[in-house]
């Protein structure tokens, strides 16, 4: 009886092919699993539901900011203003609450602050053809300066609605909890995922990152999309600032210093190419979780300075940037 020829090991390996687009994200997943394994082996209760939930809860604002940053970087741009917009949104929220504005009025206006700044940046980048680095740097200085005008000193938030939101926890008996901020962050991720992968706008975002001139030749709405990605980033920064204000129950002008770098690091570690055109919003979420786990491991360790967080993040970022560069060279 004839038998089917056996395939060689080399043939089977060649058939198991991973799309190069997913390689950076796969690297992020491997790093995440390795960190969970290391933390779980070194520290008791590290893998408990409470600790894992706290990683998401404590970084929910950064998840939202990283989502907005993903849209911008996918087009080949950058947004350095998000940290200052976070601070400005928090200061405006605290000022409004301290002057008797209710949550129903203050919350939309606070988010609108980020939207307006994002719109201004988008117009500067597209209409006036200013480099994103310069346009967002100018917006960063503007927003940070406005923070000191709105709130020269830290303003506590005592609004009953915000206090109730900050204290709300939904959880199980084993310690797995979620907060309103965490739910909002997950909702933003879901909306961004659908937008990027199942809408014409999302396809245009990827097309611009792959080649702006080619996108124009295909008849895609490049101008509108380039402006809208900065509007989305600004809106996410405004919402992130509100979530951080709820988390800290205060508004402070120095909030968010360096947060734009954390967001960029999370997006890059999550597999989005800095040159644009390739990346996933879920990868950015994984990048935020990696940053959160680094901080958690150092906290559990107890003897290391918090600056070691920056050192490890910098090392990871360098590795992923080199990996991205190698992938780009290989494609060419």
From TrEMBL:
GO CC, alphabetical: plasma membrane
Pfam families membership: BPD_transp_2
CDD domains named among the record's database cross-references: TM_PBP1_transp_AraH_like (cd06579)
Coiled coil: none
Record carries keyword Transcription regulation: no
GO molecular function, one term: transmembrane transporter activity
InterPro entries attached to this UniProt entry: ABC_transp_permease (IPR001851)
Keywords, sorted A to Z: Cell membrane, Membrane, Transmembrane, Transmembrane helix
Entry's transmembrane regions: 21-43, 55-73, 80-97, 103-125, 132-151, 175-196, 227-247, 253-274, 281-301, 307-328
Localisation: Cell membrane
Topology versus the membrane: Multi-pass membrane protein
NCBIfam families from the UniProt entry: PRK11618.1 (NF008630)
Protein name: Sugar ABC transporter permease
Organism: Cellulomonas xylanilytica
